[in-house]
Amino acid sequence: ALRRGHHHAPNSAPTPAPGASTAGPDALFQQPLRIPGREGLMADVHLRGPLALQSRVDGFNVFPGQPTPLWHYAGQWEGHAIANPVLHVAHGQTLQVSLDNRLQEATTVHWHGLVVDEANDGSGLHPVEAGMQRAYRIRVANRAGLYWYHAHPHQRTGLQVHAGLAGLLLVEDDEELALRKRLGLQWGDRDLPLLIADKQVDTANRLVYRSGADDWIGNRVLVNWTPEPFLEVVPGLYRLRLANVCNARVLRPAFLHEEQALEFHLIGTDGGLLAQPWPMEDLFLAPAQRADVLVDFSRLPPGARVVLRSLDYVPMENEDESGAFAPDPMGDHPAAEPMGAGLDLMQFCVAGCGDDVRGNGGRGAAGASGSRRAAAIPASLSSLPAPPDTRGWPVRPFRLHMDSQGAWFINGHNFHRDGHAPAFTVKRGTREVWELRNAMTSMPHPIHVHGVQFRVVERRISPQDVRSRQVAEGGLGPQDLGCNDTVLVWPGETVRIAIDFDQPFDGNQQYMLHCHNLEHEDMGMMLTFAVTD
Ligand code: C2O
Ligand code: CU
């Protein structure tokens, strides 16, 4: 139902200028957003039995002109070739995926956010060597939500994820299905995933990556593997499930109409639905994090254009006196662009935004005559309990820092220098508070714990914090109120998370704790911990 050929496809799309849309947004947004469908990249797969995937490299038409070689998870589903499929599974269902590694190097499939035993977690502790196979079998214990899967080999995660090895996993349960019924928004139409990833792209449309940078910031951004896409929308409510699949860039998404932020509602985080919706105008979305939002286009006039922009922010405390960004002296930014530079991700056109739309008799024209009233947002979303009262829980402190040589550490531990043996042991069935302190003044760290979903219980914010207007009572923001598997710890900040190690798995397991800035991870900002009976 998408309009194609909005404009004539150019031979070379212009490169978006960071933070600037003054050139006229429609000159940039030429390609229709890829929607999950039956085949190709992001095909929908409603799993009923085992799925066989291969990790391999093929050319895809991502940018105008030459095809882009993408490393991806390929398979066949209902007679169609699929790549990095959107996997749909139900809570309680057994997810069975086999991997046949056709790459020239080891890889894995890590099931990011799933509560899972070590053997099926797909971390680099269990690499699948070139030419080898492995079967993952997971009884899905998570709440409904948007999770994802990606490659996770030691020291090559950044390269492989940047090259394309990432896909989405949507878990559903009864609460989710009840909400879908109330909202009445059809998946693939008004309920859409937005997989956002910035990439370094060369003039031959190849993705370029160099190991050893402190953070790999792209010069292009892909949404659903589409550069600078547009989506035609009806003037109504949409559910968008944002996933930050960037290697290192912390995004700050906002929906702008004529440079004014539209209010939207946050309804879910990494580990599923919040108890109630939160009105917001922008949020911070760190690498690996997801945000489930409701956006209401119903009060916009036909023809309106809404830009999904990652707003400017100052990611570091080491700004100069003018308040402008000063590059991290240890940093190695391949793009002449800091992490916090504004970036236009995609554009929404409310029905009728193109010259050729009015007469096309399509969905846009029908929707334009629809209701102008604001859509109803449900007052309650799920039965998610409030975060636990952690008084009396043991507190395990973690210090995040970098040494003078530029190596990254968690509690003085570097994965490559100090080895892969568990750095500590947690007793299964116990509950702990982990206190994450970012001892650096120059870099936010998105910290990810494997094998669990956790609750954020406290944030002690540094005085220079740029996010103060975002922060709710007690130092916590709306995104902290759900279940999470990745938490952003800003420079100078201390964040406490509560983890319940009552896992539905037996025996001794080894999991990973690491920074999800993939360059930090690959350079050793990672450790293994054991969960024992
Ligand atoms: Cu999404 Cu250990 O990774
Ligand atoms: Cu980090």
UniProtKB/TrEMBL annotation:
Keyword Oxidoreductase: yes
Name of the molecule in the record: Multicopper oxidase CueO
Family matches, as PANTHER family: BILIRUBIN OXIDASE (PTHR48267:SF1), CUPREDOXIN SUPERFAMILY PROTEIN (PTHR48267)
Source domain of life: Bacteria
An MF annotation (GO) of this entry: copper ion binding
EC number of the protein: 1.16.3.4
Quaternary structure, from the entry: Monomer.
Sequence ranges assigned to domain Plastocyanin-like in this UniProt record: 82-175, 401-532
InterPro entries found in the cross-reference section: Cu-oxidase-like_N, Cu-oxidase_C, Cu-oxidase_fam, Cu_oxidase_Cu_BS, Cupredoxin, TAT_signal
Highest classification ranks of the organism: Bacteria, Pseudomonadati, Pseudomonadota, Gammaproteobacteria, Lysobacterales
Catalytic activity: 4 Cu(+) + O2 + 4 H(+) = 4 Cu(2+) + 2 H2O
Keywords: Metal-binding, Oxidoreductase
Region (Disordered): 6-26
Pfam family, one: Cu-oxidase_3
Compositionally biased spans, kind Low complexity: 10-25
Gene3D superfamilies per record: Cupredoxins - blue copper proteins
